[in-house]
Amino acid sequence: MNRRSIATMMALGLALAAGGAEAGTLKGGSWEPTGCGAEPTPPAINGSSAAALNESNKQANDFAAAAKKYSDCFVGEAQTDSHAISTANEDFVHRLNAEIEKLNADSKAAVDKLNKKKN
User: Cβ of 21: how many Cβ atoms within 10 Å?
Assistant: First the structure.
């Protein structure tokens, strides 16, 4: 494992630790968080009586709090994954460019060496 790979792994580990959540999963083109639990389901509002409406409003408030918590977790995991993907992409491009530059330099050195033998 080269230095850049080790640095990438360390950065990913730090990003995951800082995010406080596991990274999500991508299945069939759909991304989902893995550490947020089930997405809360909004309650139905029951306006059949004052008591039923009051209970519905309590459930709606509970839903709003649970939805906020889920949303914060969802966004945190998405940002963690986005950062990890961006870092991996940048590292790949840098590594690929360095490999191409090395091949070009090695090729030029070989051509220069052959030209010296001719002269």
Answer: 21
